[in-house]
Amino acid sequence: MARLDINRSGEMEVFVRVVDLGGFSAAARDFAMTPSAVSKLVTRLESRLNVRLVNRSTRKLQLTPEGCRYYEHGVQVLANLDEAERAAAADDSPTGRIRVSANVPFGRHMLLPVLPDFLARFPEVSLDLSLTDHVIDLLEDRTDVAVRAGPLKSSTLMARKLGSVKLHIVAAPGYIERKGLPKHPDDLAAHNLLGPNYVRAGGGWPFSVDGVETTIKPTGNIQASDGEALRELALAGAGLARLAEFQVAQDFARGALVPVLEDFTASDSEDVHAIFLGQGGHMPARVRVFLDFLAERCRVG
User: Fold this and answer.
1) Spans of all domains in the chain
2) Using CA atoms, how far apart are residues 49 and 284, in angstroms rounded to an integer?
3) pLDDT for 77
4) What pLDDT score does 57 carry?
5) Do 8-88 and 165-269 come out as alike in CATH topology?
6) Are 225 and 196 spatial neighbours (Cβ–Cβ below 8 Å)?
7) Helices 65-88 and 8-21 meet at what angle, rounded to 10?
8) CATH number of 96-160+271-297
9) Whose CA, among 44, 46, 56, 264, lies 20 to 30 Å from 152?
10) pLDDT given for residue 4 in this prediction
11) d(CA 73, CA 75)
């Protein structure tokens, strides 16, 4: 790749690439520059802005709060430049890579089956997909779109609601045959409740008993890192699990799992959102069409 002319947009592009690739050396290879030249360019940028963008005292690249803000705006500015150049060349088709994060159940049951259709519709776009039930920081993890379930925390991020999904307490028929069918939330004290090993909003399973809302914390002998692992454990008869309807619909249909305590969980649901950086004209075309595709093909509830 040819060296950039050292101008404001060039400095910005080098800095953004340093963050994207995780270091000066990787960015230097990408631009056919030396690491010292990239480091001096970033230092010159910091001097011009009169702020520190990167902490150099750690072995891992670490952005300052000012560096995070500059990176976020830089990504938007460069995306606008790319779109302006494509428009001038009469080619405004979405192109480039989209970094996507989704929780494991949504990813496996809702997203993966339809991604080939998205890529067929937009052949110049590529996807970098990560499935995890742990909440990530979009800016720190350099992610364009993240699908999250549950209540949204106060944030400067933008969100597009994909729907609201019903949650069920489920068990395998073999487990019920061994342990009995719970008929009231109080009966759960005698059962193995499978839960996540990460923090979830509310901290327990919600029930409505005679009009009173209560929660029971799952304290079984197994905790798992994602909702799909909990489903597999429930299928194996390890205990009861609380899972999204799109996860277990096929299991219900074939009798591999059955819902329990439905009279007490009628209102148990959680919203699903696509979270992203930027809005309107600040959003790259590839991200905009991906969000539209999610709303079209991955709605829940």
Assistant:
1) 8-88, 96-160+271-297, 165-269
2) 25
3) 84
4) 64
5) no
6) yes
7) 110
8) 3.40.190.10
9) 264
10) 44
11) 5
Architecture in CATH of 165-269? 3-Layer(aba) Sandwich (3.40)
What value, to the nearest 5°, has the Cα angle with vertex 227 and ends 193 and 106?
Answer: 150
The pairing of beta strand 125-131 with beta strand 96-102:
parallel
| Nearest by Cα to 159 from 275, 293, 287 | 275
The CA–CA distances, whole Å, from 9 to 5, 19, 242 equal 9, 15, 50
Residue 270: CA atoms inside 13 Å, Cβ hemisphere, count?
21
Residue pair 288/98 in contact (Cβ under 8 Å)? The answer is: no
pTM of the full predicted structure? 0.70
Question: Which residue numbers in the chain have pLDDT < 70?
Answer: 1-6, 57-59, 83-92, 154-156, 199-202, 278-282
Cα 136 from Cα 146, distance rounded (Å): 8
Query: What is the model's pLDDT at position 22?
Result: 83
For 194, phi and psi rounded to 5 degrees? -85, 130
Token pair 């999204």 in the structure block, residue:
244
Using one digit for the tens of pLDDT, what is the confidence trace for 53-87?
988 765 677 888 898 889 888 888 887 777 666 66
Other C-beta atoms closer than 10 Å to the C-beta of 143 total: 19
The stretches of 22-103 forming alpha helices (DSSP H) are 24-31, 35-49, 65-88
- Is residue 270 within 8 A of residue 165, CB to CB? The reply is yes
Instruction: Work out whether strand 62-63 and strand 54-55 pair parallel, antiparallel, or are unpaired.
Output: antiparallel
On whether the 8-88 domain is CATH 1.10.10.10, my answer is: yes
pLDDT at 83: 67
In 10 A of CB 11, how many CB atoms? Answer: 19
Q: Report the first-to-last Cα separation within the chain, whole angstroms.
A: 47
Q: What six digits make up the tokens of 163?
A: 């729907």
Return all residues near 168 (Cβ < 8 A) that are at least 6 apart. 242, 243, 244, 245, 248, 259, 262, 265, 268
pLDDT, position 264: 96
